[in-house]
Amino acid sequence: MKRLTYDDMRKSLILDYETKGNKGLKKYKSGEPWGLKHLDGFFKGTLARSINTDAIHRYIKDRKKTEGERHHQPHPRSAQEDDEHREARRQARVPPVFSHAE
Prior knowledge:
This protein is mostly helical. The protein has a domain at 6-71. It has 4 helices and no strands. It has helices spanning 6-20, 37-43, 53-71, 79-92.
């Protein structure tokens, strides 16, 4: 008897989305489903029974650490560019651009 893994559940999820024509399954140009890449990197090969609350908390902690390091860098835009963007937004109703700088 084969043991159920993350990979098996992933395939089943994709098959379910495709069968139902679920529009929520966005794909990269390569055809790979969008949004599963991070899960794949963390859970690939893991037995399904091992994916419990503790494993999910470890995944979340890992993602926050990884995303925090990547997203909390100062935005490279200069003060002059900020002023120019603010003025353009005021004149043309350009949507705001949010910086990740704190």
